[in-house]
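Appendix C reproduces, verbatim, an entry submitted by the partner laboratory led by Prof. M.T., so that reviewers can inspect both the input and the predicted structure.
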Amino acid sequence: MFSLLSTTKTVQFTLLGVLFFYVTGCGMANRATIPDEPVQNEPKEESQPSSPLIMDVSPSVEDVTDVRQQLQNAHQQWQGTPYRYGGENSNGIDCSAFTQRVFRDFFNTDLPRNTRSQLTEGAGVRRRSIQTGDLIFFKTGRKSLHVGISMGNGNFLHASQSSGVMVSNLGEQYWAVRYLGARRVL
């Protein structure tokens, strides 16, 4: 009887340990998947998904204000447009087509059509250095990515599958744990 109880406890602790390592490993982005991110001999950053370090350290207030105003204009123009995979217009648009259209129409900047290609554009930006206008990427599934545009103060504009074109915040738990990286193209 004692050996059966002992074996059961051992199995329970083993399963608990495996579960702990699985849960703590989920949602972590491999830094090597973010192209061209500067690698320096810096101490490793602590991961705190519930309170990301977001700063708007743009070169000048005028530049930030102009970019933010253009993004607000884009939001007004596209707000409520439903998400449609492969969509590219006001009848329905997906996240990468949305970022492509906003950058083309509001910033006269060409971006590739798909999220994976957009992930290679511009220069890598560390999470704590995200500026208004930076592209922000998320890993939303095993093979799926999502992209939005930073509006500053942790807010980003994107075409959401659930609500269409909208503004969300990096501090929201859903986005915080799925954050993959950021790119500066402006």
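DSSP finds five helices and eight strands in the chain. Additional entries are available on request from the coordinating office.
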